[in-house]
Amino acid sequence: MIRSVLRAQRRHVRAMSTKYPPRGNRFEGKNIIVTGAAGNFGGICAKMLAAEGANIALVDLAEDKLPDVQKEVETYGIKARCFGMDLTDDTKVKNMVAEVKSEFGTIDGLFNNAGYQGAFAPVDQYPTDDFEMVMKINVVGLFSTLKYTAQAMIEQGNGGAIVNTASCAGLGCPTLMAAYGSSKAAVIHLSKISAIDLAPHNIRVNSISPAYIGPEDGYMWLRQVQLQAENNPTNASEYYFSNDNDTVAKQMIGSVPLRRAGKVEEVINAALFLLSEESSYMTGVDLDISGGNVIGGARG
């Protein structure tokens, strides 16, 4: 009886939120790890999960930014815990997962979202140390988080859902992004292999591949312009992005059949679908969230 009253109270608190009003209670009482939680995708995912009743473990290297995210998600009446850490440290990842399981009781889901874009240069000029760092964060760190979360889920015996953030850069061959594109291709393939390995334990593993998302905090490609200026590859501007949004719209959005940039919430809606029981018969899937860019077909 008391638990029913508390659940009703939490639902009422969530219903009072106007920024991310709950669309349902798909994650009521679920415990979910979100990596990259201080960033755009991770922060919004945490808030949208909290709006539907999930308790959240917020993980990010930017430890100083996590308390603000925690404060906001807790307005939904859920429990949140911050973990400021480097996901390339395997031991720290293992300990983090153990702490989440100990404090929350179970781990029901993982949004494996932390990542690093890296340098912006042609392959013959690409710095080796940066290539290694991109792989270490985007592939090895993601793998460690997936591995230890899966171990916890297997021990629980209740299954679970894991969503890895890949990118359409891993589906195509983006110019001047050798490390990032290769790392995201690895994430897509790792997700599929993991889906097969973990299926006997009823642990589903899927990935999402967004592209052309903005402008919540400025278009993603503006960061690429900055990197272009830092690396100054010859004629890079002829092949990639401009920092003028009108030019971007003409050069880049023109290749998107839906003729617009995507919203962060549209990406996270896909992630939440894959984390929820609504996708209970889906595993090993990569969702292309690019407005149709990957399949092409846009006309000038």
Keyword list:
300 residues, alpha/beta, Rossmann fold, globular, oxidoreductase activity, acting on the CH-OH group of donors, NAD or NADP as acceptor, SDR_fam
Description:
This protein is an alpha/beta fold and 300 residues long. It has a single domain, classed as 3-Layer(aba) Sandwich (Rossmann fold). The protein is built from ten helices and seven strands. Helix 5 links the parallel strand 4 (109-112) and strand 5 (160-165). The N and C termini lie far apart (62 Å).
Short description:
Helix content is 45%, strand content 13%. By secondary structure, it is α/β, with parallel strands linked by helices.
Instruction: Count every helix, treating DSSP H or I runs of 4 or more residues as helices.
Output: 10
The residue fraction in helices comes out at: 40-55%
Sheet with most strands: 7 strands, parallel
Structural class: alpha/beta
Report how far apart the termini are. 62 Å
CATH superfamily: NAD(P)-binding Rossmann-like Domain
**How many domain modules?**
1
Q: What's the CATH first level?
A: Alpha Beta
Indicate the proportion of strand residues.
5-15%
Radius of gyration over all CA atoms, rounded: 19 Å
CATH topology: Rossmann fold
What is the number of beta strands? 7
Query: What is the typical, i.e. mean, pLDDT?
Result: 86
Shape: globular
N to C succession of SSEs: HEHEHEHEHEHEHHHHE
